[in-house]
Amino acid sequence: MMKGVSFFVTVAILALASSLASAYDPSPLQDFCVAINDIKSGVFVNGKFCKDPAMVSANDFFFSGLNIPGNTGNKVGSNVTLVNVDKLAGLNTLGISLARLDFAPYGLNPPHTHPRGTELLVVIEGTLLVGFVTSNPNKLFTKVLNKGDVFVFPIGLIHFQFNIGETAALAFAGLSSQNPGVITIANAVFGSVPPINPDVLIKAFQLDKNVVEYLQKAFTPN
User: Fold this and answer.
1) Structure pTM?
2) Most buried among 32, 56, 164, 206, by the most CB within 10 A?
3) Nearest to 179 by CA among 61, 74, 94, 75
4) Average of per-residue pLDDT across 152-173
């Protein structure tokens, strides 16, 4: 009898340990989520609050407009139209989003990262030079893509897309998060608000103080 009880207790403990070992925190869906004790003053959760299923309609899963080219009349000559959970509520908890990328001739989607999502890109029109850089020791993987080609950018790694053709280019990208986020490297480093201490940037990039001040002025939002 005691052997039977001991065996049952052992199995129960192993089962509990297994369930604890397989449990994990969900991936964050925003840059941070500071804990509070008073839920009445909480405004953000890891994701969105859910709509009553009885009130859901087909429009909650629908978005229109990706047939419209984005405005590439800017300094970098590119435009990204992102369809994430903020624009398509039905994406909530599904772990996916979509983007349209338009490029003027020689337009660039500057080096950037998506802290919460892997990106899978397909070229629809034009020719793109794409690439990503690994974590230290910073190896570059790069490829020229033509119509119909596909390239994947692993989560969190710095990557870019550059139209090397004389005509406009178009691509679509799927991202493995309802809110992948984006950090454009130059804007983050030289255009943060408030600005990073110039001495930090001078030493980090081995640049002259005048160059750092020029770059901070160029990238700081108006």
Assistant:
1) 0.84
2) 164
3) 94
4) 98
